[in-house]
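Researcher: I'm preparing a figure for a lab meeting and need a structural model of a single chain. I don't have an experimental structure, so a prediction will have to do for now. The sequence is pasted below. Please return the structure as C-alpha cells so I can convert it later.
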Amino acid sequence: MHTGKTISCFGVMLLVSVLGRAQSPRQNNPDNSKVIPLTVRAGVPIRVVLLKSVRIKHVGEPVEGRVLEPVYVFDRKVIPAGSKVQGRIAKIDPVSKEKRLAALANGNFTPFHTVHIEFTSLTLANGKRLPIETLVSQGEGNVVHLVAGGAKKKKPGVVHGKVAEVRQQIKQQKKRAIDAIEAPGKLKRLETAISAQLSAQLPYHRQSLRKGTQFIAQLETPLELGTEDCPGKELEKMGSEIPPGSVVHVWLATRLSSATDHKGTQVEAVVSQPVFSSHHQLILPEGTQLEGFVTEAVPARHLNRNGRLRFTFRRVTLPHGVTRQVEAGLQAANVPRASHLRIDSEGGAHATSSKTKYVMPAIDVLLASSSIDGDSGRRAIQESSGGSDVAGGAVRGGVGFGLVGSLVAMAARSQALTAGFAFYGAAWSVYSHLMARGSEVVFPKDTAMEIRFGTHEAPASSGGKGKATPPGKSSSSSS
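Model: Understood. Here is the structure written out cell by cell.
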C-alpha cells in the first residue's frame, strides 16, 4: 500500500510538472509577444552623404559621412538618420580611355580617377560605435527625388511660357541673393558653389569628392544590434490587405535598364521601411519582398531618341513566407540629376532631352559661321581693337575647347585657328545634341524608390514561392 501511494503521488507530481512546463510559455508570454533579433542583414544598403570635401591624393585618406535615411529591422528603427559613418579611400584607379578621350575632346585635361571608398565604422546617436564591412558604390554629386507626374502641367503658349519662365528665374535669383545675404552661412555656401563652378570650367583642376556627394554602402556582413520584444497585438494585422493608395519605401534588388531589359523581365525590390495601419499595427515589415516584371522597355536610338521603361509589382512575400497578390507601380525614385529622367503619372520612366537640344547647336553653328563672315561690323571691331576681334574670337574658340579654346584664340588672334575651333565645336554640338544615341533609363541596384499600391486580391498560400508571372503566361505557384 505504501508503495502504491508513493507511485500515485509521484504520478501526480509528474503531471503537475508537465502541465506547469506546458503553461509556462503562456505565463511568461501572456500577450504572445515575439522576440525580434535586431540584425541588419548582409546586403542591406545604407545611404551616406559626405560631410566635407575630400581631396583625392592617396589611398588611406579619411572619409566621414552621415546616414541619410533611417535603417529598419522588421518594425524597429535601428540606425537613425544622422548617424556618423567613418571610412577611407581604399583604392584609386584611372578612368577608361573612352571617358578620358571624351574629356579631352571638350578641353578638359584633368587626369580623372575612379575612387573606391570603404566605410569601416558606424556611430549611432547614443554614441555607440560599431565596426562595419561595406561595399560602397560610386558617389553621385547631385541626387534628386523624382515624383510621378510632378512635371506634368498644362503647357501655356510658347511666348507666354518663355516670359513666365524668365520671370520665375529672376524671382528665384533675387530670392537666392537675399537669402544669401540675410541667412548666416548661406553666403559662404554660395561662394563655394560659384567657386566649384568656376573650377569645373578650368582645363585642369584637382579632383576631389565634394561635400554632399552621396554613396550607397551595402553591408557585406550582418550587423548585430541585440533583440527586442514585439507585443502580439501589434502583429495581428501583419500580412493583411494593404490599403489602396499606400506608398511604400523600397530599395531595388535588381538593376533595370531600358537598353538591356525587355518586356517580361523579372523585377525585385525589398521593403525598407515598415508599413503600419492607422492603429499602428504592422502590415508589412521591413524585409518584405516585392516581385514583378517589366511591362515596357524601349531602348534609346540614334537621332537623340530616348529610352522608356515601365514595370509593375504583382506579389509581396512576407519574411515568414506568406504571399499576397497585389498591383503596385512606381511612384517616386532617387536618381542623379544628370540622368535626366521623368516619371509620368502612370509610373513610367522616361529619359528626357536637355531644354537646349535645338538652341545650343543653332547658336554654335551661328558662331562658327560668323568666324568666316567678313561683314563690315566685324571689320570695324577689328580695326578699333588693333586688327582682330578679340572678344568674338574668345567666344568662338570656347565653342570647341571651352576655356582652353578661348585662351588660345585670344592669344593667337588668328581667324583660321578661331574658325577651326568654332567649326569643331559646332560639329560636336550638332552630333551630341541631334545625331547621337539618346539617353537610356537606368535604375541601378539599391535605388531608393516609393511604390504606390492599388487594388488587391486574396492572400496566396504560404507555400507559393514562384515568381510573379506576366499576364498570358502560366504560373506554377499558387496565388
